[in-house]
Amino acid sequence: MDNQRNYKCLIVDDEQLARDLLSAYIKKIPFLEEAGSCSSPLEAMQVMREQQIDILLLDIQMPELSGLDLIKSMSNPPVVIFTTAYSEYAVESYELNAIDYLLKPFPLDRFIKSINKAIEWIEMKSQTGKTDEKEEFIFIKGDQKTHKVLPSEITCIEGLKEYVSFYLDSGERIVSLYSLTKLENELAPYGFLRVHRSHIINKKKVTAFEKHMVWIGDKEIPVGKTYRDKIFDILSK
């Protein structure tokens, strides 16, 4: 951790007691600095226009504008830690790339753990000079639960009528109700390729290939006739 600098935290919560607790926690950590304490997202927007904020400590349910809506409105938000009394927003908060989700009431040690995660991300981005280093999770509903998965963990996807099977590096398979065409578009930025009407592959996981077939480890995946020239050209580069 870089102890030569302080990290500016902005508190946003419509409850005074919640703001006071976060302020007290921040004061206990030498490398944190409270940049402001706001009772609404609208007030926070003004603070963020006036100064650079490193970490946003953000409640979710607030009048006029929710914490989720605030983040959705921002093109380049600070690192976000949601602080809320409601557990049902966890999945949506991670879809917005929040670094953590603190469920009220939370003790000091849980707050410190969350802050450390935030600072690790800030330092990593600073060292690499990249803004896209943090890979975004995707959420797959299957087996009566929601799975939080990194695209890089997926080796390939197989379609069967209205269902698809996600195959992961761990050997796990998740069966989900999903459109293969929709997945083709959503995962293209992560290096996924449609190779067959029933198959999408992660091109980084391919271990061997020919015109009619690709291999990911021992798994053989057919290449459809209409995809062969394009896929062979991409994999050959």
Write structural notes for this entry.
There is one protein chain. With 237 residues, the protein is of the alpha/beta class. Helices cover 31% and strands 31% of the residues. It contains seven helices and 15 strands. The chain has helices at 16-28, 41-50, 67-72, 90-95, 108-128, 180-187, 228-236; strands at 7-12, 32-38, 55-58, 79-84, 100-103, 138-142, 145-149, 154-160, 163-168, 173-177, 192-196, 199-202, 208-209, 213-216, 219-222. The strands form four sheets. It has a five-stranded parallel beta sheet with strand order 2-1-3-4-5. A five-stranded antiparallel beta sheet has the order 10-9-8-12-11, with helices on one face. It has a three-stranded antiparallel beta sheet with strand order 13-14-15, with no helix packed on it. Helix 4 (90-95) links the parallel strand 4 and strand 5. The protein is elongated, with a radius of gyration of 22 Å. The two termini are 40 Å apart.
Q: What descriptors fit this protein?
A:
31% strand, 237 residues, 5-stranded antiparallel sheet, elongated, 7 helices, alpha/beta, 5-stranded parallel sheet
Instruction: List how many beta strands DSSP finds.
Output: 15
- Runs in which pLDDT lies below 50 for 5 or more consecutive residues are 129-133
| Percentage beta strand | 25-35%
Percent helix range: 25-40%
Distance between the termini: 40 Å
Which strand order spans the largest sheet, edge to edge or round the barrel?
A: 2-1-3-4-5
Give the SSE string.
Answer: EHEHEHEHEHEEEEEHEEEEEH
Q: Mind describing the biggest β-sheet?
A: 5 strands, parallel
Radius of gyration: 22 Å
Secondary-structure content class: alpha/beta
What is the 3D shape? elongated
Count up the helices: 7
Assembly state (oligomeric): single chain
Taking all residues together, what is the mean pLDDT? 88
